[in-house]
Write a structure and sequence with these properties.
Alpha-Beta Plaits; 4 strands
């Protein structure tokens, strides 16, 4: 086979340090466009980006030449610098760690809708409850001490 063919759909979630509500509705859409540009520059296809004041969700069709860890590191690093320059004067950071969950093509429309409906979703469900549900559905056991501060604290 002369070419590489892949179908890698990732739902990536990361949160503001200490889950502080630092993402303002005033500039959240700019942040999402900034994150999308980082992904697109690295040859990933962005299906959806959304979030709330303390975290972000992305649904991405991953290009096979980059690892999830490398992409998330770039997104968090570049976006935190951008946020600090434009809005928070050096006080903004993302918490350590992230969640990344793969989905089959048949589930992409449902996950996309889930990401796009984050504001409505969080009127009913807290971020912790959301993560616990995602982990439970993925069959992942998580130590509760990491739920607040990240996975590699």
């Amino acid at each position: 086979m002369a070419n590489t063919y892949t179908q890698i759909y990732m739902h990536i979630i990361f949160a503001v340090n200490n889950r502080e509500a630092m993402i303002s509705d005033v500039w959240a859409e700019d942040l999402y466009r900034y994150l999308a540009a980082i992904c697109q520059h690295r040859q990933h296809f962005v299906h959806a980006i959304n979030g709330s004041s303390d975290h972000v969700h992305l649904l991405i069709g991953m290009h096979p030449t980059e690892s999830v860890a490398s992409l998330v590191k770039e997104m968090k690093g570049q976006s935190s610098r951008w946020i600090n320059q434009k809005f928070h004067r050096g006080t903004f950071s993302w918490q350590s760690g992230y969640g990344a969950f793969s989905y089959s093509r048949s589930l992409v429309p449902a996950v996309k809708q889930y990401v796009e409906n984050q504001h409505e979703h969080h009127r009913r469900v807290s971020f912790t409850e959301e993560l616990e549900d995602i982990f439970r559905k993925a069959g992942i056991e998580v130590n509760p001490q990491y739920m607040m501060y990240g996975f590699d604290t």
